[in-house]
Design brief:
Blueprint: E1 32-36, E2 48-54, E3 59-64, E4 71-77, H1 91-98, H2 111-118, E5 122-127, E6 132-138, H3 143-152, H4 161-178, H5 182-192, H6 208-217, H7 222-233, E7 239-245, H8 249-260, E8 285-290, E9 296-305, H9 315-323, H10 331-337, E10 341-352, E11 355-364, H11 372-389, H12 393-408, H13 415-422, H14 425-428, H15 446-455, E12 462-467, E13 476-477, E14 484-489, H16 492-499, E15 536-540, E16 544-550, E17 558-566, H17 574-600, E18 603-610, E19 613-621, H18 625-637, H19 643-659, H20 665-677, H21 684-691, H22 696-706, E20 711-718, H23 722-735, E21 760-768, E22 774-784, H24 787-811, E23 817-825, E24 828-837, H25 841-861, H26 864-878, H27 885-897, H28 905-913, H29 918-928, E25 937-945, H30 956-959, E26 968-969, H31 973-978
Parallel strand pairs: 3-7, 8-12, 16-20, 21-25, 21-26
Antiparallel strand pairs: 1-2, 2-3, 4-6, 4-7, 5-6, 8-14, 9-11, 9-12, 10-11, 13-14, 15-16, 17-19, 17-20, 18-19, 22-24, 22-25, 23-24
Helix pairs in contact: 1-4, 1-7, 2-24, 3-8, 9-15, 11-16, 17-18, 17-19, 17-21, 17-22, 18-23, 19-21, 24-25, 24-26, 24-28, 24-29
Amino acid sequence: MTVPQYAPRSPGRAPSPVELRPGGGSDSPSNIIKRYDNIIKSPEDKRDYRGLKLSNHLKVLLVSDPTTDKSAAALDVNVGYLSDPDEVPGLAHFCEHMLFLGTQKYPEENEYNKFLSEHGGSSNASTSSDHTTYYFDVLPQHLGRALDIFAQFFISPLFTEGATGRELSAVNSEHEKNTSSDTWRLDQLNKSTADDNHPYHKFGTGNRDTLERIPRERGIDVRQELLKFHQKWYSANIMTLIVVGKESLDDLEGIVVKLFSEVEDRGVTAPTWPEHPFPPHLRKKRAYCCPVKDLRSLSIDFPIPDTRKHYKSGPGHYLSHLLGHEGPGSLLAALKHRGWCNSLVGGTRIGARGFGFFGVQVDLTEEGVKHIDEIVELVFQYISMLRESGTQRWVWEEQRDLMALEFRFKDAQDPRTMAAGHVHLLQEFPMEDVLSAYYLMTDWRPDLVDEMLKMLTPENVRVGVVAKCFEKKCTQIEPWYGTKYLQEDIEESLLKRWESAQPTSELHLPPPNEFIPTNLALETSPDPTKDGIAPVIIKDTPLMRLWYKRDGEFQLPKSFVTLDLVSPLAYSDPVCCNLTSIWVLLLRDSLQQFAYSAELAGLRWSVGNAKYGLSIAIDGYDEKQHVLLEKIMEHLVNFHVDPARFKVMKESHIRAIRNFEAEQPYQHAVYQQAMCLSDLVWTRCQLLEAAHSLTPEQLTEFTMLLMRRVHVEGLMFGNLTRERALEVADSIEDKLPKDATPLLAQQLLLYREIEIEKGSWFLREIENSVHKSSCASVYYACGVRRVRQNVVLELLAQALSEPCFHVLRTQEQLGYIVFSGIRRSNGVQGLRVIVQSDRHPAYLEDRIENFIRRSQEYLENMTEEEFLKHRSSLAAQKLEKPKRLATRASQMWSEITAQVYNFDRMHVEVEELNTVTKDELLEFYKKHISPKSLERQKLSVYVVSTAEGGAGNKEASEENDNETLQPTKITDLVDFKSRRRLYPNPLPFINIPRKGAHCKL
């Protein structure tokens, strides 16, 4: 498992809308030490780049993109929680939270988020072991002002007493959210079992104890510690900055130099940790751990040095590729053959500057848990085979060529992702290599591979086993998360056995990759769809409909193919629903060896299932897509059940249903809301009950039936001709069983949504015993999706997003997770507010309703200028062009699957949006959202924690101020739904013949 970065400050928060003002900053040489104009970029990359080193030693990468519809910036400070003072764990993370809450120049707590919200933007930040990263995006014309506010975080933050006290609650709430997450628990267990004297041993997020109670008992002023930490480490010489804008490089340089030259250079040295946190006396260890969810995994870790300096030769990449391979002769193939494993990940990961890990993580089957020592032995047999084979130049060259190909035809990243994803690389690599560092390998260094292989020995190994069955064995308690574990020495006899592991004929190097594309030419033949907006139907038979469009926008040798195999059998009852899910798991499993090479060669593929049936998607280089697609279809149509793998996948499926219980409370709220509002939905309890008795014979019969009662609808979009698309479509239809019966039109209708009657308020309340946090979700239904209603609702959500977060999260500190936004499902939409907190949901709803009530005054007092800012901000966001071909394809496909066909939705809706007035917005609020409305349709969901310390153990009446109106409780879902009407499906935007029309009633 890779080490998780700290969660962003506001997960799930609706992106707020974003300003760029050309600044005429000083261009004097005294403010710039060096310019870099030799940055290596892809030949397909249309952006311009320039590196700077300012006089305060801040490193900057400027990115000029005249076509961008968003601007963005990211700043990285080369320090993280490993540099926390010993007596105040979590201080770096707390500092990251506090920087957003006011500066000397901009003292208002929500100035930054309010500005971004009004100007099409959003922001976030994260703290890791040795980095703290801040980033935002904004509409291009407002970049200058946004950068001015942003720069002040690093020049003169206030850290006011009031904000410090309140934001501490958010940090504590964030920690509480993580306490039942196995990812966080296992990550901290790894740290807590490290050398006590190494900073890696620390607890990084912090909580109320470490940031308030203990410091107070020791006479430590945490606000003063924050100021000291910022004063010491927030130094320009260990910061890097990336700014992406519409302006020319010269103009961007002027803005950045003027604003960021003011950041003080304190001459600090970024810390490094060349000593490993797991010295020899902490190796040769085995740890058992009891998880919260029913997980089973094995990690085999080897401490290694930081290998990033060898990025031009990639020794870690070479070994990751081989140990993590999934094709014939691989470690995974051997483990699956024995029935011990479902998946495997191998590779290097960095702990912090100076040290790293090479690891193999294995997802275990029930049988695999009984064979831990043999699995580790197989890993050492594979390593022994690698040593004996010697480092192969052809393997390295194949990797080098594939990575260079990926770099050449890399999809453009949106500005925020680009800035946030590259800003820490400026700390690690020379300026000219910052874009290409992980793609272009030039140095063949087998000696470095051999050097790393020498470290992968039983003498250096640390083994971790995670499974519920070890609970009794686990007698130790990790202090921060309370994880039960046991760490012990590995027996010498076992170490000797692993030491003498020899290669076997079963394990061998992968064959050369046959999926590497050779034809990368763009199609040049004329095609009427190339410059159009909408795809066209080029095949329409009783069994299949195919949509097609040539790409004229991205100009890459790639295409996107997606197919839906729709069948009423797939979701007809809980048994069929389970069988569809297990079928998909077995399909992926059986395709793994063949398709892994395609994945390595840039062909992403997926097979999934939903209510309507199965879906297949392939995205990447177009030349060999048909080979992979035909193989997938063959597996589907001629499916054979392997009873041994069926048993494994059935158990995995049942475990996944059960494990939902341990998901976050807000996810349970979202699930319960769908249960109340979806016309037909099988509950987890129903699925679980039906799953236990399933047999391989049932699945065989089910797949034969389903493939004979199916309608295939597909989209092919990209660098391919109509003729090629039709050839592929014909071959797919030819593969369908000859005795397949076409579906009727009414078997292809979409599911519908339950209509809550006007003026009503319903409440669904459930309990959760896993998490201490509870959750309230409040949904205000606004009817069927139509163009005008869509944009007015979006505008309302846009206007209320930042105030909602500021009031409920920043001011009232109800919890870390505060979300407001639009819920859309089955063609129906509404406004939803979610708060996850340690308070009772009844109290949370009261505070949500209080905010909603006060929103009327906020909307009424909004100036015309503010209203127009929100409107233009939303319009700009809607007109934002996709950066990837697959994203554009997904937009088209969502119109097709929803059967609405509004392929020019963004322009149609923006045209409508531009005529919406403030009065109309207010009227919409008063009709659908206001507590005074007699037409309001409201559904509340409470997830009440019954865990120790949870709100379910407190008196709800103490938490709830609202004793007047009482909701109607939903206790029987079937009864509730059987007494309500269904909303109609949305009307199609254009007239498209209904699927199944070929089949007469």
